[in-house]
Design brief:
The chain has helices at 5-18, 33-37, 78-95, 100-112, 120-129, 135-147, 161-174, 182-197, 226-240, 270-277, 289-294, 375-386, 418-432, 450-470, 483-492, 496-529, 539-554, 558-571, 577-581, 585-593, 596-602, and strands spanning 25-30, 50-53, 57-59, 62-64, 66-71, 260-261, 266-267, 286-288, 298-299, 306-318, 336-353, 357-358, 389-393, 399-401, 406-410. By secondary structure, it is an alpha+beta fold. It starts with a helix and ends with a helix.
């Protein structure tokens, strides 16, 4: 039996009691698509149960932010209508309660998880039904399909709904530390549904029309999204062979080429680093207008900045007491506290290169403990600490084989230099990190496929990052065969560059962590080799030393006492055997004398 308009309206009113945040939408009920859309009905599947139009809709004397349509002849029963309302309201409208950059990240997360076992069935269903739709549209349909299973009992009264939703969104859509699973999408949609329940979520993204109605429409030219601007620039540079990871670098000072902010001392990461490098500047320093002014420098007249984007997950607020008044410390200053943002925010900043700034002070670089070693030593330390299975064979092929989890390299003698050898070895180590027991990337695609080229893009960008960190240079010559595939990939999916840059940063961090491990082990070894001579002191020895040093002081040898104080300050409680033996007996006695009172108390 076909549901009547009155019954559908009554059920919708009950639905809105659970989700009053959806009262911003108008609801239109008609028997078929022809009554709903007139001449445009042919653009909509005849068996469609509903639709969502994200455009201002006048009705009942007011303006609504969008409209949900219901095709009554295609609704089987009350449950069918409820599922349709969830699909259109919690799914499609819910996706628009994210800010544009957040929605972009959500769609990317859903797309990245299309092969994840629990999300794949949803994708398979949508791919069959929406063959001609764009990837983004299909991703939104996956979101809407998953939302059909969201019921009030899943989120109302659940104190963890926001925490779980935020965590899943951050891990699978923003940081992308793992592929999105159906459980993650469920958590995110429960967070959205609860926001519509307590009216804390409202529409933030305002697309002009649903894609199904765009045919033949004349659309106004809009500002291109950041990811498209970056991808288009990189595509042109790939064609010219001038993309950042296509340019060879000679060995040199570590951390001298990657873009960095001299104010914070940190380098730019991910897509921001790639975007800044693509500007072709010789100086690696980038900063905002205000940061330049803060150090007495000035951006040159007529210069334009380069945009970068960053995400903010926390904010700092005044801490309030139970009465809502600011908490103050002992000095009367307001106490600050860090709070988790309900929704991560994306920000854009405009930065200028040092070549565009006048009056910047000279950069002073302090070497890290790792940089006390030369580049080749550092690279060798990393390879050894990784524990990777590496074999050398005569030939010109270097590769990582996932099936055996092993790296094969040509003999060292076949390389023009040690730098070339380690650059190649570290490139393959980048692939090695993709194993399921490490960073778990999909390495199952055959040589020559687009997916294989995607993995090469990640390894090549990470090679550039690691090469700069170690100062061993970067040789992209052997990977020119992938350029055409990279261009096609970025043309089809501009956001793939963002994903590749993010994965490359993870590879960089994973590889360099082996060096940190070596440094810590070396420091522990040196500490273990130190001898604590104070442990050898007995009461008899203490008395003898005291008498000896007092006698030396009576003879006017105050210099020994002063020098002893200095050495104790420099070396602390323990000295290496070499340091101890470098002192003459009188001075050694004086060093110990400075601690005698403390030692005697312990004895």
């Amino acid at each position: 039996m076909v549901m009547t308009k009155a019954d559908a309206q009554d059920l919708t009113r009950r639905f809105l009691q659970d989700y009053p945040g959806a009262m911003d939408l108008a609801y239109k009920f008609r028997r078929n698509t022809a009554e709903l859309y007139g001449p445009r009905a042919g653009d909509v599947p005849s068996d469609a149960k509903g639709g969502y139009l994200p455009k201002d809709t006048p009705a009942n004397g007011r303006m609504y932010r969008g409209r949900v349509d219901v095709v009554l002849n295609n609704i089987v029963d009350a449950r069918d209508l409820l599922i349709t309302l969830r699909h259109e309201v919690l799914g499609h409208y819910g996706a628009n309660t994210f800010l544009p950059a957040e929605k972009r990240a959500l769609l990317d997360g859903v797309i990245a998880g299309r092969e994840e076992p629990t999300l794949k069935p949803l994708w398979d269903s949508i791919d069959k039904r929406y063959v001609d739709s764009s990837l983004d549209s299909r991703a939104e349909e996956v979101i809407a399909l998953q939302s059909e299973g969201i019921a009030p009992r899943h989120h109302i009264g659940n104190n963890l709904v926001h925490e779980r939703g935020t965590q899943s969104f951050k891990e699978t859509a923003i940081a992308r530390v793992r592929p999105m699973a159906a459980a993650d999408l469920h958590n995110i949609l429960c967070m959205v549904a609860h926001g519509l329940h307590d009216r804390t979520r409202t529409q933030q993204t305002f697309p002009e029309l649903n894609e199904q109605f765009r045919k033949g429409d004349t659309m106004k030219a809009k500002k291109k999204p950041f990811h498209e601007v970056v991808a288009e620039r990189l595509i042109e540079q790939l064609k010219a062979g001038t993309a950042p990871w296509q340019r060879p670098w000679q060995p040199g000072e570590p951390n001298s080429l990657m873009p960095m902010n001299p104010t914070t001392g940190k380098r730019y990461k991910g897509i921001n680093a790639i975007h800044l490098m693509s500007q072709g500047r010789a100086d690696a320093r980038w900063m905002t207008y205000r940061q330049a002014a803060a150090v007495g420098a000035q951006v040159l007249k007529g210069e334009t900045g380069t945009p970068v984007q960053f995400w903010k997950f926390t904010d700092e607020h005044d801490k309030l007491d139970t009465h809502g008044k600011p908490v103050r410390d002992a000095q009367g200053n307001k106490v600050k506290e860090t709070v988790q943002l309900e929704r991560p925010r994306v920000f854009f900043a405009s930065v200028f290169n040092a070549e565009q700034i006048e009056g910047l002070p000279v950069v002073e670089v302090t070497p890290t403990p790792e940089q006390q070693w030369n580049a080749i030593e550092r690279a060798e330390h990393i390879m050894q600490a990784s524990g990777a299975r590496i074999s050398h064979v005569a030939g010109d092929r270097a590769f990582y084989r996932p099936s055996t989890d092993s790296i094969t390299l040509p003999e060292k003698s076949q390389f023009a230099s040690a730098d070339h050898y380690y650059a190649t070895a570290l490139h393959e180590l980048g692939h090695w990190t993709g194993h399921a027991s490490r960073l778990d990337r999909d390495l199952s695609h055959p040589f020559g496929s687009l997916s294989y080229a995607r993995e090469e893009l990640r390894a090549e960008i990470s090679s550039m990052l690691v090469g700069d960190a170690l100062g061993i240079g970067h040789d992209p010559g052997q990977h020119v065969a992938y350029v055409a595939s990279w261009i096609k990939t970025l043309q089809d999916e501009p956001l793939e560059l963002f994903r590749a840059a993010s994965d490359a940063e993870k590879i960089h961090d994973y590889v360099l962590a082996f060096e940190q491990q070596q440094v810590q082990e070396q420091q522990q070894k040196e500490q273990a080799n130190r001898i604590d001579y104070t442990a050898m002191l007995t009461p008899e020895v203490v008395k003898h030393l005291r008498d000896s040093v007092i006698a030396a002081q009576h003879e006017g040898n105050e210099h020994a006492r002063i020098e002893a104080d200095r050495l104790v300050s420099d070396f602390g409680d323990t000295l290496t055997p070499q340091q101890y033996l470098s002192f003459d007996a009188e001075l050694a006695d004086a060093i110990l004398f400075t601690k005698l009172e403390e030692i005697e108390r312990e004895l």
